[in-house]
Amino acid sequence: MNQALEAAISDEEANGAETNGAETNRADISAAALNETGSDASESALEELERGFISEVGPAYLAKAQPPHPELLQRWRYRSFMPLLHRLHGTVTGLRSRHAFVDGLRMVWLQGGNPEGEPVVLLHGFGASKENWLPLLPFLARRYHLFIPDLPGWGQSWFKPDVAYGMDHQVARIAQWMGKVLPSPAHVVGSSMGGGIAGLLAARHPEPVRSVTLMNAAGVAGTRTTRFEEQLMQGRNGLVAHSMKGVFDLLSTVMQSRTMAVLMAPAMYQELVSRRHVNEHMFRQLMQHAPDESLPAFSSVTAPAFILWGIDDQVLHVSCAETFLELMPHARMKLLPGVGHLPMVESPHHTASLLRRFWKDIRRQV
Question: Counting Cβ atoms within 10 Å, is residue 43 exposed (0-12), middle (13-18) or buried (19+)?
């Protein structure tokens, strides 16, 4: 990690402690601040940055991790452990459940908010579902038209064991889905795996993307690694839970607050453990199907971009944010002190405020 980023993190942490996480005047870190070294990356170096995570982790993980038995995948059937919430979405969240077929798969999403507002698409991460965005909705629904899918293979969207679920496949499906349902270009926000999909989507299908926000996004390597990443190299995946302890450990990894992990573990236990074989398969799919090097990637993004990262992320090291900024030097960046891998869950009000400000600035520039 270069000195500019270390100084920026120190400033953010100090300011966050003084203001209890409120935004400060030093919030946005410019590309110039992170490129003080003056080095010009060659095209090949950029390509290496763009594919660093999967190329480094994938072969080691696939060689050492035990694949799930094919019969267990064939026998698995989705069972909702939040049936009441799914039935009451219209009353509780003001959103309605919709579905359509994309690439032969039934895809489910929530839609609602202000139908006259700018469209916003929210893409969840690995092991998650559209419900991950619920804490954010009260702060966005009045002004924006929200589209929140379960990515193919996740949540209520169909999972088929004989279908490929690599990043390229998911990007193509989301582009097709957006073409079906969006009334106009959308602000696309992606968390973790969803952030990687959002970035590649903006690079390859710029027409439906008004802006893109990468929130603790997957897809690139940082200059440092987390314990989670080091365990992947040993074939151990902390995002796949096999027991209540595994669920608590998972939640403690993705969120900075252990108290929140304790409170959420009982509610998440059945769903996460019941999907363990499917989730292992889905992770292997990501590692087996690396993004096609001949297709545009993050350095090709031209839409307004926002890199949003919890400094205390224990899944993807905060230095990954620097890599994304090297690839997208026009992007805005904000580091969040006291926040881990899931800003929209851990700090929804602040996260929503940052998003609204970013989108407002885009409107002013038109």
Answer: exposed
Which residues are CB-neighbours of 328 under 8 A, at least 6 positions away?
298, 299, 301, 305, 307
Q: Considering the entire predicted model, what is its pTM?
A: 0.88
Return the percentage of the chain with pLDDT > 90, whole number.
Answer: 73
pLDDT at residue 20 is higher than 50: no
- Both structure tokens of 8: 């920026």
Superfamily the domain 3-11+42-50+77-223+297-365 falls into: Alpha/Beta hydrolase fold, catalytic domain (3.40.50.1820)
What's the rounded Cα separation, in Å, for the pair 358 and 298?
19
The phi and psi torsions of 94 (rounded to 5 degrees) equal 80, 5
Residues 6+ apart with CB under 8 A from 85: 92, 131
Q: How many CA atoms lie within 13 A of 229 on its CB side?
A: 23
Q: What burial class does residue 48 get, using C-beta atoms within 10 Å of its C-beta: 0-12 exposed, 13-18 middle, 19+ buried?
A: middle
DSSP state of 325: H
Please name every residue paired with 111 in a beta bridge, in sequence order, or none if there are none.
Answer: 96, 147
The domain ranges of the chain are 3-11+42-50+77-223+297-365
Query: Tokens representing 228?
Result: 């989670």
Q: Is pLDDT above 90 for 216?
A: yes
Residue 243 has pLDDT above 60, yes or no: yes
